[in-house]
């Protein structure tokens, strides 16, 4: 076995642990997720445990994983699991998709990896493996297409347990061997069948793919403001927030956005707090 020893893929991991991992892994590398996942599961080992905590504590525990609205959605999903499903994560894709913050990919992944269901799980790594091995292209399209989903469905084994194992295997192949920048084709079990290798490994002919800017962006500003609130035991005076981001218009715009997203609560005395935090 060459796959990574990930705690949420180990035998015995609860469906809740799998759901938490899949939400955390959205647009976030495994190395950043794993320590936060461990702390989260120690503190909130069940949906009921998280649902019973203030939403602001979920935002605080999210630490620096990015896209903190996911913390609020996971908190809301925990509440929905308790209210609608007796505290047990449902095993069907339709029921999973009805939970806050759970889309098609996350529902398919939880159904497959937590319950052994035959579902079509297509993430960035899977798309890249399919694009190369079957399509002969260096990289997939910028956004998931219906044709890619259909291809993944055709390649999926008919037997449910085998299909779940297949999904993990293709994801791991993309993450460890068929990587975006430096694929290890010599170590790939598909090298003799890979259409991209057979074509001479041509470079990507699509539009340039630029990385996301960070310095000076609203995302960075929002992160700084949230960091102050996460590190505080209670409400924070507006002056402390002004000190971490001097550009007034951008700071106020980002603070208003955090309030609108439900990540921050403004108080009548001009202070700010995470939702449900001590005043």
Automatic annotation (TrEMBL):
Alphabetic keyword roster: DNA damage, DNA repair, Glycosidase, Hydrolase, Iron, Iron-sulfur, Metal-binding
Class of enzymatic activity (EC top level): hydrolase
One Pfam family it belongs to: HHH
Cofactor(s) named in the record: [4Fe-4S] cluster
InterPro entries per the UniProt record, alphabetical: DNA_glycosylase (IPR011257), Endonuclease-III-like_CS2 (IPR004036), HhH-GPD_domain (IPR003265), HhH_base_excis_C (IPR023170), HhH_motif (IPR000445), MIG/MutY (IPR044298)
Family, similarity comment: Belongs to the Nth/MutY family.
PANTHER family per record: ADENINE DNA GLYCOSYLASE (PTHR42944)
Protein name: Adenine DNA glycosylase
């Amino acid at each position: 076995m060459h796959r990574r020893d990930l705690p949420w893929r180990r035998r015995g991991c609860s469906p809740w642990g799998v759901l938490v991992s899949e939400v955390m892994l959205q647009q976030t590398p495994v190395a950043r997720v794993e320590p936060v996942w461990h702390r989260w599961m120690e503190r909130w080992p069940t949906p009921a445990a998280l649902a019973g905590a203030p939403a602001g504590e979920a935002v605080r525990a999210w630490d620096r994983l990015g896209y903190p609205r996911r913390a609020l959605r996971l908190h809301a999903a925990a509440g929905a699991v308790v209210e609608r499903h007796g505290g047990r994560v449902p095993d069907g894709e339709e029921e999973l998709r009805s939970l806050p913050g759970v889309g098609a990919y996350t529902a398919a992944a939880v159904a497959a990896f937590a319950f052994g269901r035959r579902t079509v799980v297509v993430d960035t790594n899977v798309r890249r493996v399919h694009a190369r091995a079957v399509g002969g292209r260096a990289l997939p399209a910028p956004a998931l297409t219906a044709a890619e989903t259909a291809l993944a469905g055709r390649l999926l084994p008919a037997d449910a347990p085998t299909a779940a194992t297949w999904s993990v295997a293709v994801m791991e192949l993309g993450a460890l061997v068929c990587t975006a920048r430096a694929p290890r084709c010599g170590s790939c079990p598909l090298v003799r069948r890979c259409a991209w290798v057979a074509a001479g490994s041509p470079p990507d002919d699509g539009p340039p793919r630029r990385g996301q800017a960070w310095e000076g962006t609203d995302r960075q500003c929002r992160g700084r403001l949230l960091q102050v609130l996460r590190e505080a035991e209670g409400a924070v005076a507006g002056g402390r927030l002004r000190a971490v981001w001097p550009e007034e218009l951008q700071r106020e715009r980002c603070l208003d956005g955090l309030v609108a997203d439900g990540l921050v609560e403004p108080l009548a005395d001009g202070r700010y707090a995470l939702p449900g935090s001590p005043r």
